[in-house]
Amino acid sequence: MKRLGVIGIIIKGDRSVSIKMQELLNEHSEIIVGRLGVPLRDKGISAISLIVEATNEELSALTGKLGRLESVSIKSALLAVDV
After folding, report:
1. pLDDT tens, 32-70?
2. 13 conformational bin, left if phi > 0, alpha if psi -120 to 50, beta if neither
3. Which terminus of the chain faces fewer neighbouring Cβ atoms within 10 Å, N or C?
4. What's the domain count of the chain?
């Protein structure tokens, strides 16, 4: 059962992490409905929010891979709205 959810991502520092993260997002693009990125250049941080339509397993697969990237912090939630 697919649900609507959100993933919040904070990236600190080196842009090479952003490239690896982008590759992962491309691999899982079928579950991503929308994306918003905000660079906070003066702080060396980027904030990204993703809206996803996914099963628990699909969300876990993506967030697990993202969480293993250096300098990346994530939080996710699936809403109690079936789609």
Report:
1. 999 999 999 899 999 999 999 999 999 999 999 999 999
2. left
3. N
4. 1
